[in-house]
Amino acid sequence: MDSNRQGIRVRELLAAIDRGDDGALEELVEIIYPDLKKLAHFQLSRERPGHTLNTTAIVHEAFVRIAGSHGSYTDRAHFLRAAATVMRHLLVDYARKRNAEKRGAGIAPLTLQDERYENADDTLAVLALDAAIKDIANIDSNLEQIIECRYFAGLTVRETAEALGISVRSVERGWQKARAYLTTTMETPSD
Number of folded domains in the chain? Predict the structure, then answer.
């Protein structure tokens, strides 16, 4: 199936799911699963090596959350943008859980040789990035969407513009502004 026909079919399936057609959900999974795996792989490539979560686990959990949300998606790009957001939240939730375990919520005590202890900086970086993205969303929600498309979904500037329905130049300006904000925020030591 060529990409144009596939895009039309995805829109039809999303509309059918909106109407409550469970069979459409199964067909959508077959079509969009490779895209979700690519998205999850991209997000995991930004994580520490040897991450406990794997691509398949993230795809399945994200799809369960998306399917259970009964959201209304207009097209493939909209659906993938939502999936990227859900995957980001999964990784942040996982980082929070790891951080809580590091602080004693887990059963096993940590030692200096413990791998969980050695990767604590990665966990804190994920949590700091999430906090910075939430801050930027309060300033300009478009910047948050641009970050999700560019950084988390790995979309190009043109793909981001199409997914958000804005101009390429707006994405370029927004991406520049978002990166500057995140760089400043992430480098500023907190008290």
Answer: 1
Domain that holds residue 135: 3-187
CA distance 126 to 140: 21
Three-state secondary structure of 52-99: CCCHHHHHHHHHHHHHHHCCCCCCHHHHHHHHHHHHHHHHHHHHHHHH
Exposure string of 133-169, with b = 16+ CB inside 10 Å and e = fewer, is beebeeeeebbbbbbbbbbbbbbebebbbbbbeeeee
pLDDT tens-digit map of 95-147: 788 766 665 554 454 443 334 434 445 666 777 888 888 899 998 989 998 98
Q: Are the C-beta atoms of 160 and 149 separated by less than 8 Å?
A: yes
